[in-house]
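@channel sequence for tomorrow's demo:
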Amino acid sequence: MGFLSVIVMFVALIVVLIIASFVLLVNIILYILESIAIYSLAKTRGDAKPWLAWIPYARSYLKGHIADIASGKGYFRYTLPICKVPWLFLFVLAFGDTFPADAAIEGNMTLFVVSAVSIFIVNFIVEAIVAYHMFKYYHPLKATTLTILSAIPGTSFLRRIFLFTIRKRQPAHIPVEYYANCENI
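structure tokens (generated this afternoon):
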């Protein structure tokens, strides 16, 4: 291996690290924006525990709770967190001892990829439905547009930005039938 090859590999490594750092920074900023938005929405509604917006798995429950109020249904607070659980199993499968490197030859890699894609699609659909109900609750005239824009592949970051922009809005309506048997988190 010549000196020039080492320099090229070093430059490529630096470029990859810069790109990875940028992606990590953008994701941290988007996480903070979405946490502020969900915290504000929950606090405005008078939820007992709006701080759950800052805890990664618990925020799914809180977003589902807001969607429950918006839709008048009562299952999003459980559906959204349950959709996140299979990712944990895939993580263990990918990085645990049960998925050795040579097992890909035996067909486990196909199962892993199919499972990951299936879980991604289910999560995508549930997140889009929850986002729609949240947008409909706080910005009913633009709910469909905001949901479609944030559901286009590669633009899921828009959902976080849209939630941040509606965080100070008052709900357009509160379904009376929901509050007949409402429980605060």
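heads up for whoever presents: The radius of gyration is 21 Å.
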